[in-house]
Design a protein that fits this description.
The chain is of the alpha+beta class. About 15% of the residues lie in helices and about 35% in strands. It has a domain at about 35-110: Sandwich (Immunoglobulin-like), CATH 2.60.40.420.
Length: about 110
């Protein structure tokens, strides 16, 4: 038995897929090169320690059911509920340790170069 993915049908499927992808492209938000994502999941920051260039930003995204924050010297995301995100821009070089103000065992560090 031959596969149905070869032959003329596959070319039509490829054109159709390409056309649909082109239609959806304006709705897809591209990742920003200067934005690093830190996920909050299972009461941990992942990754907990990150390095970014000065002027870059970190998006903290809460994937847990309970509220969290990312609070450090000079920045605070405020309370992030499930699926909420907050973006913090770091303009100066340095080390910026942070924690969750609700769960103090949750810690991380942003190193800005």
């Amino acid at each position: 038995m031959t596969s149905s993915t070869s032959g003329a049908g596959s070319a039509a499927w490829s054109r159709r897929s390409f056309f649909l992808a082109c239609l959806a492209a304006p709705f897809v938000r591209p990742a920003r090169a200067d934005e690093t994502i830190v996920e909050i999941h299972q009461f941990k920051f992942a990754p907990a320690d990150i390095s970014i260039a000065a002027g870059g930003s970190v998006a903290f995204v809460n994937l847990d059911l309970v509220p969290h924050s990312a609070t450090g010297d000079g920045f605070d995301t405020g309370t992030l509920r499930k699926d909420e995100r907050a973006v913090v821009r770091f303009s100066k070089a340095g080390e910026f340790p942070y924690l969750c103000k609700f769960h103090r065992h949750m810690t991380g560090r942003v190193v800005v170069t």
